[in-house]
Design a protein that fits this description.
The protein has 105 residues and is an alpha/beta fold. The protein contains 4 helices and 5 strands; from the N terminus they run E-H-E-H-E-H-E-H-E. It has a 5-stranded parallel beta sheet with strand order 4-3-2-1-5, with helices on both faces.
């Protein structure tokens, strides 16, 4: 199972985390990507999100560089697990073309 969770609102990160945990309970080998863009990009700086990333190291975390610029988030502020991609929208399309199911949170 391959799933991309898309979050573009800061207030929806908690929902994404819960959904990811549920998927992993039922499908522990799932290939999961958490992609944040828009205002949610700031979520990668939150202690609770960093704790989540440390706990779930098998997930791919992606951040939209365009959103980082818009919300004044610097690359050096990002946790080492976060992969910075140029465009979140293009990243979502590419993942879906590779067979990932899309979940909007």
């Amino acid at each position: 199972m391959k799933v991309v969770f898309h979050v573009d609102e800061l207030g929806m990160i908690r929902e994404a985390r819960h959904n990811i945990e549920y998927v992993l309970l039922t499908e522990p080998e799932a290939d999961i990507v958490l992609l944040m863009n828009g205002e949610a990009i700031q979520g990668y700086l939150l202690p609770r999100v960093i704790k989540f990333m440390k706990e779930y190291r098998n997930i791919t975390y992606q951040a939209c560089h365009q959103s980082m610029r818009n919300f004044h988030v610097r690359s050096k502020q990002m946790h080492e697990q976060v992969e910075i991609i140029e465009s979140g929208v293009i990243g979502l399309v590419a993942l879906q073309e590779r067979g990932y199911s899309y979940i909007k949170c």
